[in-house]
Amino acid sequence: MRTYIDPPSGWKYGFPKVYDGSKDGDILAWLVEQGYPQSEIDSLGSQFYWRSWAATDQPKEFNQGIATKKG
Description:
Elements: E1 2-6, E2 17-20, H1 21-24, H2 27-33, H3 38-44, E3 51-54
Antiparallel strand pairs: 1-2, 1-3
């Protein structure tokens, strides 16, 4: 299942990113491979967490910017 992963302060490192558990392997190793600092993971220790939600295909018009009023 493809899932968006957003670790603490992930925006600094280009997150959220799509993680595919069937091919990406260990999620902590994947985070580091994707540019998330190991030091951030280590600093939280057993309290390390991430937000996640299903990665679904969105309709093309879903993210095309601000709609303008016609007329």
